[in-house]
Amino acid sequence: MNVLVVGQGGREHALAWKLSKSKQVSKIFVAPGNGGTANEAKCFNKSINVNNFSALEELVNSENIELIVVGPEDPLVNGINDYFKDSGVKVFGPTKEGAQLEGSKIFSKKFMFENNIPTGAANFFSESKLAKNYLQTVEFPIVLKADGLAAGKGVLVAKELGEAMQWIEDVMEKNKFGDAGNEVLIEECLFGTELSYMGIMTPKGFYPFETSVDYKPLLDGNSGPNTGGMGCMSPSPFMNSELLKNINEQVVEPTAHGLRKAKIDFYGFMYFGLMVKDNQPKVLEYNCRLGDPETQCLMLQLESDILEVLLDALSNNLENISWSKESSMGVVIASGGYPESYKKDQHIEILDLNEVKLFHAGTKKENGELLTSGGRVFSLNAKAPDLEACKKTIYTNIKNIKFNNMVYRKDIGDIYES
Ligand code: AMP
Ligand code: GLY
């Protein structure tokens, strides 16, 4: 079977790499892919934008692609599943309606309220004047969220009124995030330990993945600005049986039930972003995709054939997913300046790497030369009997990767409670 992976990050590299291990997969096309994806066995890059559905359709037809695996949220929210609905090709990822759980924070908040899923209290505003009036009445900190997709930048945890007022002005009056900021949520600030829980959602039920922890802040000690994720470890030391039971009973089951009630046939990855206090989860967000860099850890842990898992999920035949008992870890290597501005087109040198897997993200190949092309450049991953061993292997190898202004955290694998 020929498969198309849509996306270009480390997550998509990891998915393509794992698909390449399946005996049933003949060719994997990655659109657009990155400087590492085409190095994997059976993998080919196609320089097509993730939202150019007609160009993807031409590729699907010319290469007899039977399955499309969608990495990022954008094409899902834009309706890639609906576009291919009657074409015969299977799409792993929800319809436009299901993807609203990530694509509209107001839709997802209403969904949680209707289905009694624990989450922060929130009010919705479509006029900046009313939002500003309301802000005069609340206690700080408070959380401000643009309704639509804003490339991961649409949330502010505001510490005081001035900052919150400025955000409303930028987003609702000056259209900082375009139409994504036409409506906003003002939400209760939750405290506790942030945790993500991922898996595959189908109308038949939810199939959890091994647990994982993402390190969001840029700097050691979990300090500095938030990023897309600077590292990952799996399994998560924060999970315990009581918390797992609470997440399943209070969040996962009501979500699956709510989707069925709304007649949304959801077949795809689902990521619950949670805030946990005293083993009680509250939902911060839904994502209809896997996390990055969590996927890079999880694909190393996955023992099942991923193609079988995805096809079984799509045909309601998935029973269970097998995971290694070992640990895995990944350290993100970024361009200095990320998540703000950073230099691109930096020459990359990679010397010998041993017992690690290097997943590319912001890299490209030009005339055979490997160059940086993004903020997060690589995730260097290892799987070993325990996290200490993973850590040692990764940090020994990382010195063999070199480019100007390369930055990475030195403390991935350390445990921070909140
Ligand atoms: P979201 O995209 O909704 O997950 O928000 C991005 C980040 O903002 C989350 O990962 C949290 O760190 C933070 N956040 C979102 N909602 C809240 C909340 N209600 N209370 C505290 N922090 C929040
Ligand atoms: N690593 C967090 C995310 O992918 O949303």
From TrEMBL:
Any GO BP: purine nucleobase biosynthetic process
Xref: Pfam families: GARS_A (PF01071), GARS_C (PF02843), GARS_N (PF02844)
Keyword Nucleus: no
Metabolic or biological pathway: Purine metabolism; IMP biosynthesis via de novo pathway; N(1)-(5-phospho-D-ribosyl)glycinamide from 5-phospho-alpha-D-ribose 1-diphosphate: step 2/2
InterPro entries for the chain: ATP-grasp (IPR011761), ATP_grasp_subdomain_1 (IPR013815), PreATP-grasp_dom_sf (IPR016185), PRibGlycinamid_synth_ATP-grasp (IPR020561), PRibGlycinamide_synth (IPR000115), PRibGlycinamide_synth_C-dom (IPR020560), PRibGlycinamide_synth_C_sf (IPR037123), PRibGlycinamide_synth_CS (IPR020559)
PANTHER family given in the database record: PHOSPHORIBOSYLAMINE--GLYCINE LIGASE (PTHR43472), PHOSPHORIBOSYLAMINE--GLYCINE LIGASE, CHLOROPLASTIC (PTHR43472:SF1)
Protein's recorded name: Phosphoribosylamine--glycine ligase
Gene giving rise to this polypeptide: purD
